[in-house]
Amino acid sequence: MHWEFVDGNTAISATTRKRIRSHVARGKNAGRRLTRPSRLSKAHGEPPTYIRIPALLQSHETNEDQEIVCDIKRPITSGLIFPVEMEPQTRDIAHKVVEASRHLLRTIHLINGRLAGANSTSDDTVAAVVGMVHYERHQGQFGRALIHTRGLRQMADLRGGVLKLGCELARKVFLCDMECSFQLGCAPLFSIEEVDAVTFSTGEFELRRIAATPEAGPCDLNTCLATLLRHGRDLALVYNAIGAGQQPKLTYYAHFDLVLSFGYRLLKFSPLQGPRPASHLDDVLHLGLIIFLCTFIRRLDRGIADNNLLARLLGSVAEKVETDRGTQEALLWALLVGTASIFQRDIPEWLTAKAATLIQSLGLATWEDTLGLLHRYPWVNALHNEPARGLWHRVAPSYDTWLLN
C-alpha cells in the first residue's frame, strides 16, 4: 500500500474527500465484494411526486450561509419537445407516435438479432417477420411491407419451399404478398401453384358444398375473365348462404383459402401495373372483381385499407363513355361494390356523379331493380347492401319524379 499526504491547512475538495474514503476503506474491505442497488432498478422505481432541491437564496431576510430547500412539482413527461405550442389532444397523439416508433425500432432490432443467429429461418423468426409485415399493412406502409415480404420469400426458399413453413404460416405469408400486389400493382412473389398446394382442398370443398346456378355473363367477355366471374359468384353464394343461416360459418382456414385462391387467380390474369385489357368490359370486370375481393381483406382493426392505385384505375375506366348496356351494368356494379370496399371511408365525387348517370341511363327506378341487376355479379348482401343502398338513395331520383319523366 502506498502513502499519500493531505494538506490539512487548506480546504479539502470533493475529489480529495473521495480519495481519502477510498484509501481508508481499502484495507478494511479487502477481499470483500460490495453489493449496491443498481442504478437500473432505481430508474424503474416509482417516481416521487415531489422532489426537493437545494437553492441558495440571498436576501436581507436570511443569512448568506443558510441553505433553503424548496418543494417543486416534478414534470413527468416523455422528454419530447415540440418547436411550437400544441393542443393537448394533438400532443397526446404525437406522444403515442413516439411510443409506437420506439416499439417498432425495438422489434426490428430483435428480428435482426434473430436473423443473424443460428435459427434465422425457424418458424418463430418467420412468424416475427410476418407480424411486422402485418403491422406495416395496418399502417399503410406497403413499400416496406413488400421489402419484408421479399425477405419472407427468401426465408421460405432457404427452408426448401413455402410448404415447409406449415399451412398456417404459409397462409399469412400469402396474404401479405397478395395485398402488396393489390396495393402496389406488382406481380406476386408466390405462384398460384404454391397457393393451391396449401389452399386447394379446403377452398374447393367449400365451393362445392353449394351448387351454384349458372348465370349468363356479359357478352363478348374474355374466356378467362368469364371463369373468374363465375368463381366470384360462387364465392359470394357461399357467404350469402351463411348470412341466410343455410350453412354454418366458415372456419378461419376455409375463409382464407377461398380468398387467397381467388385473389391469386385475379393477379395471374393481370397485375394492376401490368398491361390492362384492351376491352373496356374486361378492364371494368377485372377491376371490379379485385375491389369485390378487397372487402374480405381486413387490417388489424378490421377496417379496409384505402387503395389509391385501384381507385385511380377505376376512375380512369369510368371516364370512358360507353353505350353498351353490359359494360354500363358492370361499371355500376364495380362502383357500388367499391362503397363497401376501398371507398368505405370516403366516396369521391366522381364516383357519385358516375353512379347517378348510370342509374338513369339503365332505367333503374327502384333500389329493388338495382339489386336484381347487382345479383348477376359477385355480391354479398350482408357486406354490400347497406353502403350501396345509401349511395343509391343519395343519387337516384325519387320514384314520382321518375314516372313524370
Automatic annotation (TrEMBL):
Residues 25-45 are annotated as: Disordered. Residues 25-42 have a biased composition (Basic residues). It comes from the Eukaryota. This is Uncharacterized protein. The lineage of its organism: Eukaryota, Fungi, Dikarya, Ascomycota, Pezizomycotina.
